[in-house]
Amino acid sequence: MATPHPHKCVWCQDNGLLETYHDHEWGVPCHDEHMLYEYLMLEALSAGLSWQLMLSKRAIFRACFADFEVSRVANFNSEDVERIMLYPGMIRSRRKIEAVINNAQRFIEIAKEFGSFDQYLWHYTHGQTLIYQSHLDGVWFTQNGLSEEIARDLKRRGFKYLGPTLIYSYLQGIGLINDHDPHCFRFQQIGGTVV
Predict the structure, then answer these.
(1) How far apart (Å, rounded) are the C-alpha atoms in residues 92 and 101?
(2) Identified catalytic residue from 37, 38, 39, 43
(3) Is 168 a catalytic residue?
(4) Is 51 a catalytic residue?
(5) Per-residue model confidence as pLDDT tens digits over 63-93
């Protein structure tokens, strides 16, 4: 059984992949195009599956999808889909694999339109990390108006496997939303604007 860490979010205390991810990645404001695409595709691949599974298969996903180099993935074809389907340990979902390729193409389109995907995404919060007052008051949710708005726009632009719940998780992961427990050491380190 994991040793409790009173100054960390409860969900991460596994002394393993989740805890490492929490301590070093989750909630840190991300402005790197490569990582924004990787995190977004991990969310798409996670539909119906656990985040721990995503982390455990991260090396496999990177091997299958050219280390998430968006320009390379955007040019994948049906032969690449078959190659990925046969890769040992890969999730055997043709529709998810095709979605990762499709989403690379849509990601590039947004980057061209806005100057970068980073600029597109962070314009929703005017470059600020948000802290919801409701969370400080102990009320938690898995989607909200912001995630619904972004998911709706991404769907309109042709993205697949990215509904409001997965987008909310994405916004938490890349630091648009600081959802660390207020007592967690990362909460104060990341900070943000209370709304």
Answers:
(1) 15
(2) 43
(3) no
(4) yes
(5) 999 999 999 999 999 999 999 999 999 999 9
